[in-house]
């Protein structure tokens, strides 16, 4: 747990690097901050065209339904993609004796979380245009964010450490995420999964459980399935323990291999 204690100890550095990441991301671009909103909007438009028009997905207010699941998925995939290469590209920082390497993956996750939170008003506005106003059950959002954050931290710590030694991982990961996207109920409802497999599929895939929970509180405006969330939390904690072990066992070698 020393890695987590160090992360808390260096929280000022963590926030400073996150702020710098957010400020520098779109520096010099014409739209600047609005790329944070434009990217998910463009993806939403493409997927809405393909699945609601060409594939005739029979889901009321389909654009809003898909946007609810797409935003947390983008937080996850951007965090995993950027976090995986966060160590291998920062030799100047890792060679400093007192620099805690776990800060770099955490910066990526936090900056992508900020992008997600900044896009939330856009999602809520789209829901209002669709006639779906938030209800008090939406106050469960921080709990779901916390659980997804736990799962994301676990995966990013493991992949960022392994990518220092096995650079092929960053290339394979993109293909795995493309496949994973269609296994998670983002562009289709969870009810499309055969009922006899549905609970098992969602319980074994934390992102499936989280996506269903977001859809429950924002689109269906009901309580999420807490059994699925509990299963996702258990998997996330187990992964985090393993990821911390991998990270701690290899961290002394990072500066040498980057």
What does this structure look like?
The chain has 258 residues and is mainly alpha-helical. The chain has one domain. It has helices at residues 2-9, 11-25, 35-54, 62-84, 91-94, 103-129, 141-165, 168-183, 195-204, 206-220, 226-250, 254-257.
Ordered list of secondary-structure elements with their pairings:
Blueprint lengths: L1 H8 L1 H15 L9 H20 L7 H23 L6 H4 L8 H27 L11 H25 L2 H16 L11 H10 L1 H15 L5 H25 L3 H4 L1
- How far apart the termini lie comes to 24 Å
Oligomer: single chain
Given the C-alpha coordinates, what overall shape results?
Answer: globular
User: Helicity level, as a percent range?
Assistant: over 70%
Rg calc = 19 Å
Order of helices and strands: HHHHHHHHHHHH
The total beta strand count reads 0
Give the low-confidence spans.
Answer: none
Beta strand %: under 5%
The average pLDDT score comes to 86
Question: Helix segment count?
Answer: 12
Counting helices, strands and paired strands, the structural category is mainly alpha
Number of domains: 1
Biggest sheet statistics? none
């Amino acid at each position: 747990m020393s890695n987590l204690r160090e992360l808390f100890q260096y929280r000022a550095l963590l926030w400073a690097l996150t702020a710098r990441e957010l400020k520098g991301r779109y520096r010099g671009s014409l739209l600047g901050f609005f790329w944070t909103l434009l990217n998910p909007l463009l993806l939403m438009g493409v997927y809405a065209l393909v699945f609601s028009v060409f594939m005739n997905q029979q889901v009321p207010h389909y654009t809003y339904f898909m946007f609810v699941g797409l935003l947390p998925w983008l937080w996850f995939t951007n965090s995993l993609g950027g976090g995986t290469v966060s160590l291998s590209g920062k030799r100047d920082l890792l060679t400093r004796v007192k620099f805690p390497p776990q800060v770099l993956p955490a910066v990526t996750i936090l900056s992508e979380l900020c992008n997600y939170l900044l896009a939330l008003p856009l999602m809520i506005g789209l829901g209002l245009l669709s006639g779906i106003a938030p209800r008090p059950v939406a106050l469960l959002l921080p709990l779901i964010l916390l659980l997804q954050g736990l799962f994301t931290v676990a995966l990013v710590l493991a992949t960022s450490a392994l990518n220092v030694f096995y650079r092929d991982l960053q290339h394979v990961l993109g293909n795995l995420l493309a496949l994973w996207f269609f296994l998670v109920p983002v562009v289709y409802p969870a009810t499309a999964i055969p009922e006899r497999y549905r609970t098992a599929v969602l319980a074994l895939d934390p992102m499936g459980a989280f996506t269903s929970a977001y859809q429950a509180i924002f689109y269906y405006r009901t309580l999420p399935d807490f059994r699925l969330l509990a299963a996702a939390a258990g998997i996330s904690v187990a992964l985090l323990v393993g990821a911390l072990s991998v990270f701690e066992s290899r961290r002394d070698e990072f500066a040498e291999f980057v």
